[in-house]
Design goal:
Length: 325
């Protein structure tokens, strides 16, 4: 276990260095921050002074080295727009995004597993055909269009749910949460459904595919020969092996969902890190953009590492050193 953790830690460091380098390299293509920071009447000398103060005239490696040195000290830079540390801004916006991702994940898990299992157990049923047909449509429709349709139907036409914002929140041990207010939950429903629509059809098809493969395997035939009931075979033996690849893919998709909140948060004006990132691009807030990219990259790396460890505990054939027992 210790050797595995050390190996994964070294991989995390290498990957995060690569991500930070890429994020820092593309920042020069995102606009001129000086133009956003000074007035349009500022002279060339004033703009040059600001560039010099920010260190934008230094060589790339000098700027990157200064950035990494500051990051190791916990300083990711100061936002040009907010005039505050970028890490503080992301941590302030993070609860809203995490709530969105968690509720969307609950929708995905709550619907994909039973629907996927049912579709595998009853492959020729008309309900299964309907499930698979709807899942194809779900895969084809982009998330922003789903969000707009939800807004039109449930907010504009029916008037059941609010169309934008986060609603009322309460402070719970320093965490501003809308999960404990009726208004906050109402504001959370539509964006969560829209966000879950990205992954839900894929997971339904994944669970069905893996369940069908498990049901056709040799050991399932053996359990049938032993006289076990279908319910035991389906839910105790086949489903357990079905969940292994689902958990692996799910860990990767969790990181993707954090990144995909960008579109959902924009449509619903949800005050999370995704909406913040788009605003930072419009303002050429380079330190905030760079910090966001590194943050999302870290989420990917962290979730993959956690999933590797969980996979090893769930499947007794796999050990955390990467081999088979």
């Amino acid at each position: 276990m210790i050797s595995f953790l050390l190996k994964r830690l070294s991989q995390v460091v290498i990957v995060m260095l690569a991500i930070s380098l890429i994020a820092f390299a593309v920042q020069s293509k995102l606009g001129d921050p000086v133009a956003e920071m000074v007035s349009i009447t500022a002279s060339a000398q004033e703009k040059a002074a600001v560039r010099e103060e920010l260190g934008l005239n230094d060589a790339f490696l000098v700027q990157y080295g200064r950035f990494i040195t500051n990051v190791l000290q916990g300083d990711f830079g100061t936002s040009y727009f907010y005039k505050r540390p970028t890490a503080d801004i992301i941590l302030e916006k993070l609860p809203a995004t995490l709530e969105l991702v968690v509720i969307a994940s609950i929708f995905i898990i709550g619907f994909s597993i039973p629907l996927g299992v049912y579709a595998a157990i009853h492959p020729r049923n008309w309900i299964t055909k309907s499930i698979m047909g709807i899942s194809i449509i779900g895969i084809s429709v982009p998330v922003f269009l789903t969000a707009i349709l939800l807004l039109f139907l449930f907010s504009q036409h029916l008037g059941w749910l609010p169309s934008y914002g986060r609603g009322d929140t309460v402070n719970l041990l320093g965490w501003e949460s809308g999960l404990f207010t009726i208004d906050g939950i109402k504001h959370l429903i539509l964006p969560s459904i829209a966000l879950s629509s990205i992954m839900l059809p894929l997971f339904i098809r994944l669970v069905r595919s893996e369940m069908l493969e498990a049901l056709g395997s040799e050991y399932i035939r053996f359990t049938k020969a032993k006289g076990l009931t279908n319910r035991v075979i389906w839910y105790k033996h086949a489903l357990k092996n079905t969940m292994l690849p689902v958990i692996t893919v799910g860990g990767v998709q969790l990181g993707i969902m954090v990144a995909y909140t960008l579109l959902t948060e924009t449509v619903f004006q949800w005050p999370g890190v995704g909406f913040m990132f788009l605003e930072a691009i419009n303002r050429a807030d380079i330190p905030l953009i760079t910090t966001y990219i590194i943050f999302v990259g870290f989420i990917f790396v962290l979730t993959n590492t956690i999933i590797d460890i969980i996979y090893g505990f769930i499947d007794p054939r796999v050990n955390v050193t990467g081999g088979k027992n």
